[in-house]
Amino acid sequence: MGKQVITLLVNGESHRLEIEPRTHLADVLRDELALTGTHIGCEHGVCGACTIRVDGAITRACLLLAVQAEGAVIETIEGLSDSGEIRDLQDAFRNRNALQCGYCTPAMLITAQDLLLQNPTPDRATIRDHISGNYCRCTGYQAIVDAVETVAQARYAAGERS
Amino acid sequence: MKAYAFDYVRAKTLDEALSLLERAGDGGKLIAGGQSLVPALNLRLLGPKLLIDIAHLSELRGITNDESSIHLGAGTRHVELATSPLIGQHLPLLQTAIRHVAHAAIRNRGTLGGNLAHADPASELPACMIALEAVMHVVGPKGERHIDAADFFKGLYETALEADEILVRIAIARCPADTRFHFNELARRAGDYAMAGLAMVMHGTPGHGLRIRPVFFGIGDRPVLASQAARCLEQATHMMDALADAQQALLHDLQPQDDLQADPETRMQLAQVLLKRGLADLMAQGRG
């Protein structure tokens, strides 16, 4: 049961890593690459705190072995944050107090962005449904739904103007 | 928690996967989407020696149709089923069901074949396969064989698959033009396992050769075709007149289980409610 050498493409950078096959991607991101914005809660796919993007699709990093991710395009909250892609969502979360401890926040932002890319005009029920796999244990969901709804409306209005 | 240590190999062809699986014996385990397997690994419920990754096999890909059937590659991801125009046109039941399968992030990776081979009794798609009379195409060292969905699910996480076989494709015969579909489940939260669920396929006219297949899941150790309830409904001139008898027949068709989510009496009650709502939905579709 030795280690394997793999190459992972994370936020546009290629990393050569020697890891045990049993290591899930969330642990590799955090422990090997110091990308600690990907949080670990339950480690069995329930809490959603480790949500990242793999080949453009949101994915649980705790349910993906790092060896499975070789050859895929991996994007974490650090990548989405640095590129400015979710700047408006980050601002809205702060303005609406849609976070307290922040544990769920990176994954909540990625999941919200995923929804808005697929559906620019979601109603509140649709927002709730899309974030239903992301647990928040302190703020509650009201402010998070507010923030996502605000950004959806602002982006839609900006699209209408341009 | 962290998984026990194991080795990993990514198979390049179906033949390679089959020979790796045969050689690994009891210690081998296939992984595709991993959305049920990796939680079980992380919780140390399973401790395979070798994981054989079949996610990249072209032999398991694709949704196609011919004049008689729709063919679903076992490696088809839930999200692909949910967005496929071909499935939307011919098998809308699957698209309704998939909305209830976990959450978007899980549906992006979880595969149809993995879902069926895992055989979780609360899973939506096994029940759909029985309702649709799907046929499982399975390949092993001795060649290919076909298993009816009704014979495929054997119990809790148990299927008719041998340890050295791989589910490669699911074939579903085209439904008659007047077919109506219904899917519903009752769960405590969106994306949770169902306390009770129902997939139904119906065609024909009440009193004139109507055929209905109500399949319940989350009730027992495997999906169950409620055959006595179906008979009540098929023999009635007006289907809703037979509702009470059909609900009563569920007492014979189903043996609800007891667990942390619900007791057997609650489950039976939920099954009867689902049947009533489902029939109302099927009738409403006829008026539409």
Short précis:
The complex is a heterodimer of chains A (162) and B (288). Chain A has helices spanning 25-32, 77-82, 87-95, 105-118, 124-130, 142-161; strands spanning 4-10, 13-19, 51-54, 57-60, 73-75.
Distinct helical segment count of chain B? 12
> What class, by secondary structure content of chain B?
alpha+beta
CATH architecture heading of the largest domain in chain A: Roll
| Percent in helix of chain A | 25-40%
Keywords:
heterodimer; A: 162 residues; alpha+beta; Ubiquitin-like (UB roll); DNA polymerase, domain 1; five-stranded mixed beta sheet; 6 helices; 5 strands; 15% strand; globular; B: 288 residues; Uridine Diphospho-n-acetylenolpyruvylglucosamine Reductase, domain 2; Uridine Diphospho-n-acetylenolpyruvylglucosamine Reductase, domain 3; Enolase-like, domain 1; 3 domains; five-stranded antiparallel beta sheet; four-stranded antiparallel beta sheet; 36% helix
Question: Can you walk me through this structure?
Answer:
The complex is a heterodimer of chains A (162) and B (288). Chain A is α+β, with helices and mostly antiparallel strands and 162 residues long. Chain A folds into 2 domains: 4-80, Beta-grasp domain (Ubiquitin-like (UB roll)), CATH 3.10.20.30; 86-161, DNA polymerase, domain 1. Chain A is built from 6 helices and 5 strands; from the N terminus they run ββαβββααααα. Chain A has helices at residues 25-32, 77-82, 87-95, 105-118, 124-130, 142-161; strands spanning 4-10, 13-19, 51-54, 57-60, 73-75. Chain A has a 5-stranded mixed sheet, with helices on both faces. In chain A, β1 and β2 form a beta hairpin. In chain A, α3 crosses α6 (142-161). Chain A is globular. Chain B has 3 domains: 7-53, 2-Layer Sandwich (Uridine Diphospho-n-acetylenolpyruvylglucosamine Reductase, domain 2); 60-173, Uridine Diphospho-n-acetylenolpyruvylglucosamine Reductase, domain 3 (2-Layer Sandwich); 180-287, Enolase-like, domain 1 (2-Layer Sandwich). Chain B has helices at residues 14-24, 37-42, 78-83, 85-90, 92-98, 104-107, 112-118, 124-131, 149-152, 227-235, 243-253, 264-287; strands at residues 7-10, 28-31, 50-53, 63-65, 69-73, 135-140, 143-148, 153-155, 158-159, 166-173, 180-186, 196-205, 208-217, 224-225. Chain B has a 5-stranded antiparallel sheet with strand order 4-5-10-6-7. In chain B, strands 11-12-13-14 form a 4-stranded antiparallel sheet, sandwiched between helices. In chain B, α10 packs antiparallel against α11 and α11 (243-253) packs across α12. The longest helix of chain B has 24 residues, at 264-287. The termini of chain B are far apart. The interface between A and B is medium-sized, with 32 and 31 residues.
